[in-house]
Amino acid sequence: MAYLGGSGRREDGCKWALVEAPAQKFFEAVFRRLLNPSLLAEDLGYITSDVREIRKLFGIPGMKVLVFAFFEEDSPYLPHNHEKEAFVYTGTHDTNTVKGKPL
């Protein structure tokens, strides 16, 4: 995984950079430092098994988008397939509104 961090300035003037880190150690540090952090995984698109494992290990809820639900028969976005700990949105900035035209 990678996170935005760093100190000082890079040659291009930016003071932040993506820093590679072992995911489990990163989240262990976050949970040590912050008591009960409010985290949400933006887990839309292609999600690897290691991301799912880290979410489960640390109890980090993911996202479900309803407009994605109706394109395949047993979509994980259908309400009856949602995980108990999930944030559900009708759409995103990348989708049309629910009332708008079909995708």
TrEMBL record:
Highest taxon of source: Bacteria
Listed Pfam families: Glyco_hydro_77 (PF02446)
EC number per UniProt: 2.4.1.25
Entry's Gene Ontology BP terms: carbohydrate metabolic process
Catalyzed reactions: Transfers a segment of a (1->4)-alpha-D-glucan to a new position in an acceptor, which may be glucose or a (1->4)-alpha-D-glucan
Keywords linked to the UniProt accession: Carbohydrate metabolism, Glycosyltransferase, Transferase
Alphabetized InterPro entries for the sequence: GH, Glyco_hydro_77
Gene Ontology terms, MF aspect: 4-alpha-glucanotransferase activity
Similarity annotation: Belongs to the disproportionating enzyme family.
PANTHER family xref list: 4-ALPHA-GLUCANOTRANSFERASE DPE1, CHLOROPLASTIC/AMYLOPLASTIC, 4-ALPHA-GLUCANOTRANSFERASE DPE1, CHLOROPLASTIC_AMYLOPLASTIC
Protein name: 4-alpha-glucanotransferase
The species this protein was found in: Thermosulfurimonas dismutans
